[in-house]
């Protein structure tokens, strides 16, 4: 077949170095094993720096110490961040004991960080302790495979401990999708577990991902309406559970969501996932595979800024993309079944499930599990883990649910939770806030996020009180850079770091999370942000319609233009 001009242009373009690294890695081995033996440096060299990410680890250095170490002519304080794989965020409480032990004894920061993709990270693991962490995870039947780099990441599932049957069925699909799309290489077991088997079908062939894996990271959710706590619209592939007679019978499929941009680069844009159609449960894995392999084959491997599914869909068109999925999965999408979302937040405190088990949702400031003068979160969770037979469930809002509590144990757990400050009362504003990790560990951070949000929220709480709207909630999110890990572009008020102390202010996301926020002001400091926000909150408190949310008001009142099609509207006037 004669090649089209456009194909030739793509062939002539140079593949990114990330593609070379994958292809030459021998299914993700590189020379990681040799590098591990090198005690001269705490870091990894060459391609291994990138390859260890496929094994769930990032090499970082403490940015607070960079200057000092540089002056002392020392290498940066290299240490690894490890992200566990935990589909649906469920982990037996007993396993937490080992996780806590590892954090306390083998990491530089001694904390555990819950992420907004329902898992946890250890920060600050020295190279010499890396095998220990993988062995510890293996002992409790966990791993960190495929939690980073160009693969399908941790699969999210709505945290819904009340409707146990629907949740269980949706969760099982989240787990099956995760396992189906996982890298099959033996490299992980060889390098980290001295060749012990891990609980996936091991094979050196990668029938789904191929030798060069995916063009870019890929994110998946399973969602149970009306709760969009997983922020599905930010994900590449989404399965919305459709329920009949208290069982999941199928899924509405939405594709092509993503939030990251580059400051000022109009060739990058955020996009909320769009509908493809409805499928019955029996087609779940073949459709998941078809979407992933289409993105594998059609995704842009010459420009990583244009490599995610939303750009592939934009290049080929949604109907062409849909037909290809139907062909590969040998199905026909049916019309989308009715669904609606009400909220994105977690439901804090005690909830009784239909199975009569109780669950306790605990708010964790930015997901950071540590002890401080206000709260002994780490000690409290450890105490609960040591007596609790059920599970911990990590939420996509960086919080934790103690679940499957029998009525007879409820008081015992509550006493511990109160004693260690786990049940402190926080404002609605705070409970709906989120920040990414940012400084000091994130190498890409441009401004503070996690370390800045706490005081920022106090100031917003005061403004809310002043205008007597402190019983209301506004979704406020902060990301330290335009990669947008804090999902700021789906917030009613979103800050994105520009440089130290300076942010772009975005407004106009909505409560259910399907509207992208738009930039209101660029490169302003906290004081300037607070002046704008105080004025908007004041106007909102006087002129809002009954129950009108801040994000909706800000658009109706003409403060910001609604983003309807982000490709045209996000950057435009
Ligand atoms: Fe993220 C890179 C932290 C959720 C978009 N993200 C990073 C790295 C690994 C920095 C790096 O590449 O060296 C950050 C590590 C910081 C640290 O010290 O821990 C980091 N991202 C996080 C976490 C921990 C934020 C949090 O506070 O919870 C989240 C981990 C989730 C997980 O368990 O897997 C996290 N990242 C997100 C999200 C939100 C989501 O997935 O719902 C996004 C935006 C959604 C999206 O993908 O569009 C996000 N992270 C990025 C990007 C931009 C990707 C892109 O499409 O261009 C990067 C940079 C990259 O990949 O090149 C990035
Ligand atoms: Fe780091 Fe930027 Fe992600 Fe924040 S948004 S964790 S600063 S990459």
Task: Explain how this protein is built.
The protein is of the alpha+beta class. It folds into three domains: 31-144 and 346-424, Sulfite Reductase Hemoprotein, domain 2 (Alpha-Beta Complex), CATH 3.90.480.10; 150-345, Sulfite Reductase Hemoprotein, domain 1; 430-569, Sulfite Reductase Hemoprotein, domain 1 (2-Layer Sandwich), CATH 3.30.413. The protein has helices at 5-12, 17-23, 32-36, 48-54, 66-71, 93-106, 130-139, 164-181, 187-192, 284-298, 309-316, 318-329, 377-387, 407-419, 428-431, 450-466, 526-543, 550-556, 566-569; strands spanning 57-61, 78-83, 90-92, 112-114, 120-125, 156-157, 220-223, 237-244, 247-255, 274-280, 349-352, 358-362, 368-369, 391-394, 400-405, 433-435, 476-479, 493-499, 502-507, 518-524. The chain has a five-stranded antiparallel β-sheet. A five-stranded antiparallel β-sheet has the order 3-14-15-12-11. Strands 6-7-8-9-10 form a five-stranded mixed β-sheet. A hairpin with a 2-residue loop joins strand 8 (237-244) and strand 9 (247-255). The longest helix is centred in the first third of the chain and has 18 residues, at 164-181. The radius of gyration is 23 Å and the shape is globular. 49% of the residues are buried. The structure holds siroheme (SRM) and iron/sulfur cluster. Residues 58, 60, 81, 83, 115-117, 119, 121, 123, 147, 153-154, 217, 219, 231, 234, 258-260, 308, 367, 398, 436-437, 441-444, 483-485, 487 line the site of siroheme.
């Amino acid at each position: 077949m004669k090649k089209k001009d456009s194909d030739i242009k793509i062939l002539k373009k140079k593949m990114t170095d990330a593609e070379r690294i994958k292809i030459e890695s021998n299914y993700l081995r590189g020379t990681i094993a040799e590098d591990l033996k090198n005690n001269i440096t705490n870091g990894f060299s060459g391609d291994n720096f990138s390859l260890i990410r496929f094994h769930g680890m990032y090499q970082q250095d403490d940015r607070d110490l960079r200057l000092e170490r540089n002056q002392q002519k020392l290498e940066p304080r290299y240490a690894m961040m490890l992200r566990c794989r935990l589909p649906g965020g469920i982990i037996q409480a007993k396993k937490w004991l080992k996780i806590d032990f590892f954090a306390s004894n083998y990491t530089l920061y001694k904390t555990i960080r819950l992420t907004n993709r329902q898992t946890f990270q250890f920060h600050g693991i020295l190279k010499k302790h890396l095998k220990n962490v993988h062995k510890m995870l293996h002992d409790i039947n966990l791993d960190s495979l495929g939690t980073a780099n160009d693969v399908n990441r941790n699969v999210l599932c709505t945290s819904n401990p009340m409707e146990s049957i629907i949740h269980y069925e949706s969760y099982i699909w989240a787990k099956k999708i995760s396992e189906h799309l996982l890298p099959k290489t033996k490299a992980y077991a060889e390098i980290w577990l001295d060749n012990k088997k891990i609980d996936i079908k091991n094979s050196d062939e990668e029938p789904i991902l191929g030798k060069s894996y995916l063009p870019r990271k890929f994110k998946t959710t399973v969602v149970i309406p009306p709760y969009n706590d997983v922020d599905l619209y930010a994900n590449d592939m989404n399965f919305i559970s459709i329920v009949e007679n208290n069982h999941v019978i199928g899924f509405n499929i939405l594709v092509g969501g993503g939030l990251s941009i580059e400051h000022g680069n109009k060739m990058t844009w955020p996009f909320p996932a769009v509908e493809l159609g409805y499928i019955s449960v029996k087609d779940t894995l073949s459709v998941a595979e078809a979407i992933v392999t289409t993105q594998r084959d059609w995704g842009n491997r010459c420009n990583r800024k244009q490599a995610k599914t939303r750009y592939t869909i934009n290049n080929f068109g949604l109907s062409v993309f849909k037909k290809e999925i139907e062909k590969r999965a040998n199905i026909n999408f049916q019309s989308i079944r009715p669904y609606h979302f009400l909220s994105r937040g977690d439901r804090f405190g005690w909830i009784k499930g239909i199975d009569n088990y109780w669950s306790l949702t605990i708010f964790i400031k930015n997901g950071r599990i540590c002890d401080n003068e206000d709260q002994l979160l780490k000690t409290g969770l450890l105490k609960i883990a040591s007596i609790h037979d059920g599970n911990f469930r990590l939420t996509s809002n960086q919080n934790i649910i103690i679940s499957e509590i029998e009525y007879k144990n409820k008081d015992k757990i509550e006493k511990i939770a109160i004693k260690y400050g786990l049940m402190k009362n926080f404002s609605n504003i705070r409970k709906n806030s989120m920040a990414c990790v940012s400084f000091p560990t994130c190498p890409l951070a441009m401004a503070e996020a996690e370390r800045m949000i706490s005081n920022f929220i106090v100031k917003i709480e005061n403004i809310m009180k002043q205008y007597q709207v402190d019983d209301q909630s506004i979704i406020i999110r902060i990301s330290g850079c335009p990669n947008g890990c804090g999902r700021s572009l789906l917030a009613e008020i979103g800050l994105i770091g520009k440089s130290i102390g300076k942010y772009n202010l975005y407004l106009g996301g909505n409560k259910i999370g399907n509207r992208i926020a738009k930039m209101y002001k660029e490169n302003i400091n906290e004081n300037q942000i607070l002046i704008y926000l105080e004025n908007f909150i004041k106007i909102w408190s006087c002129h809002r319609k009954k129950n009108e949310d801040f994000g909706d008001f800000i658009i109706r009142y003409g403060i910001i233009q609604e983003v309807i099609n982000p490709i045209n509207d996000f950057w435009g006037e």
